[in-house]
Amino acid sequence: MGLDAVEMHQALRELGHSPRRRASAAARVEIQTKRSTLTLGPHDNAELDAFEQNYGDNPLADRDSDLYRREFVKSFAEKWDELINWDARTKSEGSFFVDVLRARGKQSILDTATGTGFHSVRLTQAGFDVTSVDGSAAMLAKAFENGRKRGLILKTVQSDWRELNRNIHGTYDAIICLGNSFTHLHDEQGRRKTLAEFYAALRHDGILILDQRNYDAMLDHGFTSTHKYYYCGDQVTAEPEHLDDGLARFKYTFTDGCKYTLNMFPLRKNYVQRLLREAGFERVCTYGDFQKTYRENESEFFVHVAEKSVPIALDAAVPDCLDRSRPCGTYESVQTNGH
Ligand code: SAM
To answer: Is residue 34 located within the same domain as residue 120?
Structure first.
């Protein structure tokens, strides 16, 4: 029999917390989705036990798309909210995502990079029907706890993006992959597979909202940060420790002296837009720091809104993306054949 979200959370906690109870918890951790069963054992979810990140002997050489499971360990999940600061982030993002989703009449949302639940919680509170996915059990458990604190029961599914459709049921109006998460895929095959999985999990007129750090500016002009967006905690420093064409390694230092790192692939904006189009999305509209018009080098983050299909009738609903006469730096449109 499958477990509901509360039972799953409890079982995951037992797996992480008490060796004594692990055997029985392991037997119980069977996440039943309507389509398939994902069985988890103690070794599959090592991040629930781990307090240290694990990069092996040479951290700069660790550029594996599975690495995130060894980075987003329990102790880092516990610190994550200090880094993003929910209140400050709520202010800086405003109603951007709610507006984009409502303007297109979207209701069912798959949050594929749930993390500690910031967007899942916000969108649920705004009335959307949200399903929360993440590959890290530690992050997902924290998201569930954050939901509970706010009186919500998040619908959680643990899944790697590259096998998403084995673990979820049905299709969605919109998929979000936010918080500079796509950067955790270190190989192009993984990126293409992920976008194909996202595409397949969307309804015929679904949209994908995927964001990224402005790595072009970093690679070409060096790193600057206002701390205004995404990593809003002013008590935590987040800065690159190493940067090359294949790796952006960031270090996060907390007030209590704790240090964590993330190895990420520095995605160029045009490259992501191209991957989205080649995955089949008919139109990609890119915003800089939540603005439609922006200066390339001054934006810290880009948000891509990729539409699977663009019905003629929608032209009137989102003129900003369609008015080709305007010098809109964010407009991207490509006719695709056969998708
Ligand atoms: N969206 C959240 C936020 O903005 O605070 C979390 C962002 S965090 C940078 C990236 C999240 O993506 C982590 O929770 C990580 O576990 C998840 N993730 C990274 N690669 C993944 C993959 N291949 N499949 C599933 N989840 C993944």
So the answer is: no
